[in-house]
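[audit] Reproducing an earlier prediction to check determinism. Same input, same settings, fresh worker. If the tokens differ from the archived copy the diff job will pick it up downstream; this log only records the rerun itself.
[audit] input (373 residues):
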Amino acid sequence: MTSIFKTYLLPGLVFQSVIIGGGYGTGREIAEYFLSHGALGGLLGFGVTALTWAVLLAVGFEFARVFKGYDYKTFFSALLGPFWRLFEILYLLIALLVLSVLGSAAGQMIATAFGAPTVVGALGLLLTIGVLAFFGGGAIAKVMTWWSVLLFSLYGVFFVWVSVSQGEAIASALSGASAEGNWVLDGVRYAAYNLVAFAAVLFVLPNLKTRREAVTSGAIAGAVSILPGVLVFIAMLARFPGIETEAVPVVVLLGSLNAVWLAAAFQVVLFGTFVETGVGIIHAINERVAIALKASGRRLPQWARFVLATGFLAIAIFLAEAVGIIDLIAGGYGALSYAFIAVVVAPLLTLGIFRIAASDNPVTEEPRVSRQS
């Protein structure tokens, strides 16, 4: 990978890869936070989310660069001091919640496609994430990059297909559309709880060498990460109202297209997005454990990465089977979004900016040296 790609695009692709499965891969989250505000309110809400991500990621990437916070313990120790464990508690809670949503969605998808018990899809997800976590950061970054390329390509085909075949329904939903409810708040809340992905992107930030690189990369990441969600939202308008009550709206929308090959391909890619999100979250936990062991002169063996991943995922899948995807998203995400605003968003935009400004790090641009992978 070239220097420019690693610097300006890789962080955004990794961030997008981690949020997409738990953020809008199923369509359930879009229905909860955007479609509930109508067609116009949803689009405006996406604008709020994109702007929030761009600002927070720009500040966050620069803070990580200045304080060398390339794992979440180092980063939040520099930001929150002795209160950094508040983030760890929140991270583990929302990680468990997101993985439960993924397990439930994977189970629903496999059950719909093949008539198998929902636990089969959840266990398949668990095994795939565990194997990828075993190979570590280098393999994860490569898989996320190439899967993102495939994802954007297929989402583009999906969007065009829906627009052509059901364009009149989408146009009807958009014509005379109004903004209902507090779409600004939900745009911010959605951006906040998805900052769980921020911890998972830290491991690729050592490529950022200057303030301009960090800020530009963060802004690009905000724009890149919102695009698939907007495409899915517009496509969902073809079945609105009604689709917002479905457990996995994207699967329902695919079933209305009468394109077996597209439905099959999309579900394979969708399952891959669940894996991307899950492995990104798990990798951040593995890196946290690895850093703690390294401080005491020990190392985290590869097999332990697999054990940690599968153990954490097993708990999440049990929760998914017991609660269900709609209740998990409506109840869990809403409560934790406010906690993320208090523990991540507010400190980053106040203490974070102050400490960056007060740091002794040079802010002038450094001569760039071509870095080849």
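[audit] rerun output stored. Observation attached for the diff report: The chain has one domain: 7-358.
[audit] end
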